[in-house]
Amino acid sequence: MRLSRDAWILAGATAALLLAGCGRKTPPVAAPVLLDDGVVTETPLAPTAFEALSEGSALPAAPASGSPDEGLAPGPVASGAADAVAGSVPEPVASSVTLAPVVADPVASTAEELAALAEDVARRKAEEAEARLRAEEEAREAAEAARQAAEEKARREAEQEAQRKAEELAALTPAFVRAIGEGGLHGALGLALDGANLFVVDNGRTGLLGKFASVRKYEIATGRFLKSVEDIGLLGARNLPTSVDRVKVQGGRILAANPSSTWTFDNTGTLMTTTAGSFDVVTSVAVPGSTDSYRIHAGKLQRVKADGDVRLTLSTFDANGQEETIGNPVALAVDGVGTLFVTDNGSKPRVLVFEAAAR
């Protein structure tokens, strides 16, 4: 099969392009155009195409015999067309074909990225660890502050509670006023009140016939001794026995008794009768203006509530700035204004006087 003239021209252009890619540089020239009527015309893109053909360049080999274009002149046309096409290739394109691009080493880049990533991870871990330590320290400080605040609050509350209890106890406790009969009594047992006077059983006095009991009368306001109520009789034959341990005032008469008998005296101290029968030693009295009461229990002077719960135990008192102990409380009495009287039959027999409690 024979190729047409256009095919030959295209082949020449292809060859020119190949030559240009191999490094040959040709100034831009106009490309020749072969019209169907056999007239060759130059275009502005290839002005020197036919000049190349006139230099005697050979066209590609002629096609096989019998081709319609068998008489086409070879050599110069193809050569000039190749040069023309090669010259039309811009300088940057030709240069780019011959220069090898610079490509970064992917392994090195990956190593650097991994190192940077590891450094960033380590930095973030260090920051997180520092943040945790700071948070833990702040938590410890907050916990310590809370503990100290709680302890301070508990301490204040304990102090306030202790102060409240102390004030309550002080309001419930009768204050010591004075002692009556101290140094003049041999024993202090039962007692009774009669207006401004106090009667107390003095057990253990000594007479001509030995020891006996008597009822001694004192002025409450001053503690002054007034008289002794007893029935000594002729040579002490009718002295009150030492078993007498209780006394009371009833209808202006003074009654002294032991567990089985009662001796009745008039207000002058003269014995009127001796009868069988007795009465109890007063060991519990009501606190005026309160549901509480004072009682002697197991050798202790106590203030108790109505249900029997102990509010306080009065075992010591302050006598003239010195603390003293109630040795052996025996009997109680309370006057109309709440003054408390207690016989103490301890090492110093006496009657202790306490003013009314505030509550």
Could you give the order of strands across the largest sheet? 3-20-19-18
Question: DSSP helix count?
Answer: 5
User: What class do helices, strands and sheet pairing give?
Assistant: alpha+beta
**Main pleated sheet:** 4 strands, antiparallel
- The number of strands is 20
Q: Per DSSP, what share of the residues sits in E-state strands of 2 or more residues?
A: 25-35%
Can you give the helix content as a percent range?
A: 25-40%
- Gyration radius over CA: 70 Å
Strand/helix succession: HEEHHHHEEEEEEEEEEEEEEEEEE
Q: Distance between the terminal alpha carbons, to the nearest Å? A: 144 Å
The shape, in one word, is rod-shaped
On the 0 to 100 scale, the average pLDDT is 80
Low-confidence stretches: 22-98
